[in-house]
Amino acid sequence: MTTPSVQDGIDKAGSAMNLLWKPGAAPWSVPVVKPEYTGWGDEQEAWRSGVALFDLSYHMSDTVFEGPDSTRLLQAVSANNYENFAVDQAKQFIPVAPDGNIIVDGILLREAEHRYTLSGVPAAQSWVKYHAETGGYNVQFSTDPDSSVRTDSDPALFRYQIQGPLAMDLVERAFGGPLPTTKFFHSTIVTLAGKQVRALRHGMAGQAGYEFIGDYRDSGVVKEALMNAGEPFGLTLVGGLAYFTNGIESGWIPTPTPAIYTDPSLAHYRTWLSLFSYEGQKPLNGSYFSPNIEDYYLSPWELGYGRSLSFNHDFIGRDALLAAKDTVTRTRVTLVFNLDDVRSVFGDGLDYHLTYARHRIENHGELAGMTFWTSSIAPMGTIMSLALVDKKFAEPGSEVTVVWGEHPGEGTDTDADLGFPRIRATVQASPLDDFARTQYRSNVTV
């Protein structure tokens, strides 16, 4: 038991919603990395039409799980397929609660037969660590938190992502030729500037690219080699502002609400979690308010993860997740905001905006869905949002309205007219980028 725990916080606040609802909450910011290098708009354009370097070394937590029961543990707590999980392969890790809704996803890399690294926001890692501790598994684990938590030392690993139409040209120049043929989300060990590096075939920005991972002690030498190779191609460094916008077009929702706050069977888990954890502090805000935290839970089916789910083994939430396949009513979409309405609400000129607020989406006054990630996208000349909407409103080209404001929370009716402005938006596919939607995952083994 942790003191104070998430359960302590819920009890003191009176409900999970009272604990988490924080109107006007500021979005995350990337630690250490500069907010901008050449300007957030230019940096967004770089991964569309040139080549960009993302430094992912500082904002993610990493937990290593190692031991003879590591695969058995991961099988028990996630919906992934482990029968075809090769060494040096990565997968989008999908843990679900007993009700079949997602905890939070992450990236799981199999480094050896009995060794895995799980990266991302720490909620998925906490879920696995809890079951490792309480389930009698022969597994050891260690966590390297992100640099907003670990303020007195360097990260264990560096991560540099090379993205954009010219990414492969840069990589070939850096290595003196093409790297070994590698499937999407698979990796190979290579040498750059005399340093051993893992090259993971990856693409977060709608183009094929690589993520290079290695010992942080080698970060400076490796970065210099990539920068030198990138000079002829106009390589652009991406700062924290632009980086925290690239998933909107590639269709990844980064901040689902973990489905852990009300289930009686998870009471012990809530007492194990610190109140100061992601689960205890990740705020909810926006114009969509419900007193029921479960209205914010998400199914992996809604998030578009269906092709990555496997039911060839037993795992927590398996039956509920399987049953939900034919009952979910929402689907992931991209919203492109009407520029005239953007100007009316925010003023002339496209300034930088970023929010993870749950804004209410309507169609002729009817609740149609909610936003999850909204930001200015300079190359598109407007604001865009990654959202979930009811399937009947999801046809590309459909018109919806986003209610823009901050509901005060408990004590005000959910549907109260608070005078918030409405912003018209057009529904588009998600991922918005055609390459991301149709090609770069085409050879991945789930």
Please explain how this structure is put together.
The structure is a single chain. By secondary structure, the chain is α+β, with helices and mostly antiparallel strands. The protein has 14 helices and 18 strands. It has helices at residues 6-13, 16-20, 40-49, 70-77, 123-134, 167-175, 219-230, 240-243, 247-250, 267-272, 278-281, 318-324, 339-346, 434-438; strands spanning 52-55, 61-66, 90-93, 106-112, 115-120, 140-144, 157-163, 187-192, 195-202, 209-215, 236-238, 330-337, 354-355, 360-363, 366-377, 382-390, 399-403, 422-428. The strands form three sheets. The protein has a six-stranded mixed β-sheet, sandwiched between helices. A six-stranded antiparallel β-barrel has the order 12-16-15-14-17-18. A five-stranded antiparallel β-sheet has the order 3-4-5-2-6, with helices on one face. A hairpin with a 2-residue loop joins strand 8 and strand 9. It is globular and about 65 Å long. Residues 440-446 have low confidence and may be disordered.
Summed up:
The chain is of the alpha+beta class and 446 residues long.
Average of pLDDT: 95
Tell me what portion of residues adopts beta-strand conformation: 15-25%
Largest sheet: 6 strands, mixed
**Helix count from the secondary structure assignment:** 14
Q: What structural category characterises the helix and strand content?
A: alpha+beta
The total beta strand count reads 18
